[in-house]
Amino acid sequence: MHKFADRMFITLSLAALMFTLLMLFALLVDVFVDGVTRLNGQFLTSFPSRKPEEAGILAALVGSVSLITLTAAIAVPLGVGSAVYLEQYAKRSRFNALMDINIGTLAGVPSIIYGLLGLALFVRVLALDRSLISGALTLSLLILPIIIIASREAIRVVPTSLQDGAFAIGATRSQVIRRIVFPLALPGILTGIILALSRAIGETAPLIAIGALTYIAFLPDSLSSPFTAMPIQIFNWVSRPQEAFHANAAAGIILLLAITLLFNAVAICTRNHFYKISAHCS
Amino acid sequence: MTHALEIRNLHIYYNSFHAVKGISITIPTNTITAIIGPSGCGKSSFLRVINRMNDLVPHARILGEVFFRGVNIYDPSVCEIDLRRRMGMVFQKPNPFPFSIFDNVAFGLRIQNRRDKVFLQERVEESLRRCALWDEVRDRLHQSAYELSGGQQQRLCIARALAVYPDVLLLDEPCASLDPKATKRIEELLQKLKEEITIVIVTHNMQQARRISDYAAFFHSGELVEWGTSAEIFDYPKKQLTQEYTQGLFG
Ligand SMILES: Nc1ncnc2c1ncn2[C@@H]1O[C@H](COP(=O)(O)OP(=O)(O)O)[C@@H](O)[C@H]1O
Ligand SMILES: [Mg+2]
């Protein structure tokens, strides 16, 4: 009887897995079939156009790359700095316990909420307009909790015995952080950063909320430039009635998937690369 | 005889828990003092007060005075960082950094901004020689410290502490995780080192305490039951409790 229940369970879980994988696979095949022929040099180097066969992803690609670079430049120092503060300097207090809960909650807030916050705060109050910097600030807010949580986790597992060893020879707190904690926490921090950025690059809702444009026929040249991004361009093409635009959307999706996949591969490689070091001293 | 350390009426609290209860003891220069007593009696806490490592425990409170060469180290004018640079500490489990052997020994100098290559090389070699480790590692100074055996790692940790020329060496059960052969090497090493520095060692091993120490202090439930020369403590203890403990009747 037990055996039968066991088998049932295994069969059901396997079926669930297969179903998920099949769906995913079908989706990928569908996108590939639709888009792969559009993914050529012309597509990569052209601006959007009324004619689907002349349209390209250039503005969105450059927009996304600028957006992510800027987001990383803002969110990484803030996030890692906050994590170092919370793990290494903050005293245990009720205020900090409250902060912990808040950061956890913020990581789960739907991204559209961040978009609306960005619209109110950056676009309106700070009058930054629908610019690249507004977008980057909004995405930074979105991924800050993720970076903070991952970095804190990575910092927390650095063995106390090593930190004590450094303190005992007369290292200051900042020397312990720079020379012991940081190098050992780095793989975990990097993994967290890359995963957070790969989430940011696919975000659409917050950018639409702050009013990123969908039709841009030039490249962003400053922080205050209007911009578009890949998910927005894809969204725009998908919502057109003409079939040919859908091929463009599929090609854009393939490109976006490839970039996300690249981010994840880099994350896994950094983790494995540094894994040996941290495995040694636990 | 001069005193390297003089502890007066030391109390340690962790929150409301009274871990060390009014200990007074003097530690003479260039001797080995062994701290003995059952687990949880406050030996490590006592040791971590001497180099102010207990400052890192936010819920620890320290009352009393600790004089190091006549200066109360808990005086507000004393910088705990400077103090720790004059006191080496070796822990129960070897804790080399995940760097090369060379970088481990040079760590204490580098954080004091000593960068001169020749100087570092000389000091690293000298420290490793003092720990009788030089001949074993001279050809692989730039390999990871984790490639060493447990006993070698512990001697490396001693070399790391010695590299900054401390006046005092504090050891918290340094041989607890080592085999008898590695333990013997460390004991020999400490015997030699005491000619230059003052050593305080916590140990669970009565034979070891008897073999290497000049003075011994017996702690029990946070109190100092008795202290004196090793001969007094191990051969002619004044208190019944001391005799029972050193003869292994409890612990
Ligand atoms: N950081 C700490 N926080 C709370 N209690 C502690 C802490 N460190 C030690 N103690 C307590 O103080 C007592 C003495 O501990 P310790 O000094 O480590 O003893 P020993 O080294 O003799 O085994 C123990 O009861 C222990 O639980
Ligand atoms: Mg102890």
How would you explain this protein's 3D organization?
The complex is a heterodimer of chains A (282) and B (251). Chain A is mainly alpha-helical. Chain A has a single domain, classed as Orthogonal Bundle (MetI-like fold). Chain A is built from eleven helices and no strands. Chain A has helices at residues 2-35, 41-45, 58-89, 94-107, 111-125, 132-156, 160-168, 173-202, 205-209, 230-238, 243-280. In chain A, helix 8 packs antiparallel against helix 11. Chain A starts with a helix and ends with a helix. The model of chain A has no long low-confidence stretch (mean pLDDT 90). By secondary structure, chain B is α/β, with parallel strands linked by helices. Chain B has a single domain (3-246), classed as Rossmann fold, CATH 3.40.50. Chain B has ten helices and ten strands. Chain B has helices at residues 43-50, 80-85, 101-110, 117-130, 134-137, 150-162, 180-193, 206-212, 230-235, 240-246; strands at residues 3-14, 17-28, 32-36, 60-68, 71-72, 87-90, 168-172, 198-202, 215-220, 223-229. In chain B, the strands form two sheets. Chain B has a six-stranded mixed β-sheet, sandwiched between helices. In chain B, strand 9 (215-220) and strand 10 form a beta hairpin. The radius of gyration of chain B is 18 Å and the shape is globular. The two termini of chain B are 33 Å apart. Chain A binds chain B through residues 91-92, 159, 161-162, 164-172, 175, 179-180, 183-184, 277-278, 280-281, and chain B through 51, 53, 56, 58, 81-85, 87-89, 91, 93, 95-98, 107-108, 111-112, 144, 146, 157, 160-161, 164. The structure holds adenosine-5'-diphosphate and magnesium ion (MG). Magnesium ion (MG) binds at residues 43-44, 172 of chain B.
